[in-house]
Amino acid sequence: GESVGLHLPTLSVQEGDNSIINCAYSNSASDYFIWYKQESGKGPQFIIDIRSNMDKRQGQRVTVLLNKTVKHLSLQIAATQPGDSAVYFCAELTGGYQKVTFGIGTKLQVIP
Amino acid sequence: DAGVIQSPRHEVTEMGQEVTLRCKPISGHDYLFWYRQTMMRGLELLIYFNNNVPIDDSGMPEDRFSAKMPNASFSTLKIQPSEPRDSAVYFCASSFGTVGNIQYFGAGTRLSVL
Asked: Which of A15, B7, B23, B55 is deepest in the core (most CB within 10 A)?
């Protein structure tokens, strides 16, 4: 029979609009966070990172926001492009960066 | 740099057979990671090495799984005997310096156990 799998949250965004992908992490002791992008048929690729002593970090067209109070991380993509279509994962690191845990991912679909 | 190289890209085998997945990390990287990705459980860390030494294998599902890193440029993940529930995409990644540094992933091996 058909296996039951994870139902990835899906975000559909019009090309040119901004995208916001959210992640709730589990461990309040996590001290480092990374966003990865995974395109179909490929391995995850680093996008941006942030340490727990920061609230915000900006890259090229991407911004990561960290709210430690509610254990929430977000990735903002400005002017979303078709090439941004992928699954986005947040990863949290604990124990002096010795333990890495990935979230389930969010699928971003860009509508041309 | 060619990046992390995994082989084979696809593997189809029958239940009970031995499967060996291979990985060549990026030259100079001292950390190597093996992950498994499935629809059921997402991306899971199986084991990682530092300077060829296994550091944390708590993610290895059971004794049927084993991983080795005989030198800095090669690692294997072996499943013996394989079972249909082992069907997944297996990724190898490498990084330099610490676990928290950027991990560079290979393209993965898609394993199907019939």
From this structure: B23
